[in-house]
Specification:
By secondary structure, the protein is an alpha/beta fold. Helix content is 39%, strand content 12%. The chain starts with 9 loop residues before the first helix and ends with a helix.
């Protein structure tokens, strides 16, 4: 109410202000104000999606990196951002009650660490809101409609994070779930998964990031955005007594070459992979194309953009950067078709 020109999404506005500061000042540090890349991982990747689709950001940055931060699934998901402003305001009222205050003045008088701690045990999740100013529609809706900044994207995920599966205790339950989820395509889904309940979860295991990345690539081109999208999957062995797999955020040590700061007993080939991944990332930040030479001057494996006609991807593996064609399975095609019906 105090500032209708910026009624909510204050975290995103902080990010935007930071980027604008860079644009105004980077030339003084030897940088190019017309060659800015924003990037984020997890919730930060979601923030990148929000910045990409804000009409306020025209010309603010020229490339974007989305690590484990864009999610698409026909199944119910808690990652659907972009509720209306009145819902955000109602959540704020509930948060005041949770903190034990009634007025804005009382809330502002609270110690910051108290507010932080009460946020952590608040049962609702704060997220991007459609305020009609910074965000004029849910960012997934705008992404799939091509209403985003037409800049090159680098989209990545780990092989073990955010995996979903369609499961049911018996055939009748599976049929009901299929009809609810896939509608007229329920029969096609049931034909893909067969009749063995013990196999249903494994047969339908999929990545929501993969669904979204493929759909984003397809829809961008359908909507006239020619800027390329590079897609990758982080899939090396992860050493340690806990045998963790490529858990959420495990790729960050590699992207930023900080393996030595981790207790895990990484080996030489892990360091080689990290060097390559960091090189690709730096090349993308510099030019909008991740390809280039390794530290010894030899050309790194060519990473091609993802398109529907040529589903290229990069796999980060123990043997290093490994390009491959990631042809979507019939199930993935069905998941994409079903999810895109919402947009």
């Amino acid at each position: 109410a105090q500032q209708p020109d910026a009624p909510t999404n204050f975290g995103h506005l902080d990010q935007q202000a930071g980027t604008r500061w860079v644009k105004r000042n980077i030339a003084a540090f030897g940088g190019d104000p017309n060659n800015i890349t924003i990037g984020g991982q997890s919730a930060g990747g979601g923030s990148v999606c929000a910045q990409l689709t804000s009409p306020q950001n025209e010309g603010l940055f020229q490339k974007a990196v989305i690590m484990s931060g864009v999610m698409g699934s026909p199944l119910p998901s808690r990652f659907r951002m972009g509720g209306p402003l009145d819902a955000a305001e109602a959540k704020g009222v509930a948060f005041f009650e949770h903190m034990g205050v009634k007025t804005l003045a009382e809330a502002r008088a609270l110690p910051a660490d108290f507010v932080r701690d009460k946020t952590l045990d608040f049962p609702q999740m704060f997220a991007t809101s459609v305020d009609g100013v910074f965000q004029v529609a849910p960012h997934l809706e705008r992404l799939m409609a091509g209403k985003r900044l037409p800049v090159p994207l680098l989209v990545s995920r780990t092989s073990n994070e955010f995996l979903s599966s369609i499961d049911a205790p018996d055939a009748d339950s599976l049929k009901a779930l299929a009809e609810k989820t896939f509608g007229e395509d329920a029969g096609a889904f049931l034909g893909l998964v067969g009749e063995d309940p013990a196999k249903w979860a494994s047969l339908t295991r999929f990545s929501g990031v993969e669904v979204a990345a493929r759909c984003l690539s397809d829809r961008s081109r359908l909507n006239g955005i020619d800027a390329p999208i590079w897609y990758s999957v982080f899939d090396p062995s992860m050493p340690g007594w806990d045998d963790p797999g490529t858990f959420h955020s495990s790729d960050l040590w590699f992207w930023f070459e900080t393996l030595a700061k981790c207790w895990r007993p990484f080996k030489g080939y892990h360091y080689d992979l990290a060097r390559q991944m960091c090189n690709y990332l730096c090349n993308f930040v510099r030019s909008g194309d991740p390809n280039g030479d390794d530290a010894d001057g030899a050309a790194m494996p060519v990473w091609e953009p993802l398109t529907a006609a040529h589903p290229a991807a990069m796999r980060w593996a123990d043997e290093g950067a490994t390009p491959y064609l990631d042809v979507p399975t019939p199930l993935m095609q069905l998941l994409m078709k079903t999810w895109l019906k919402q947009y």
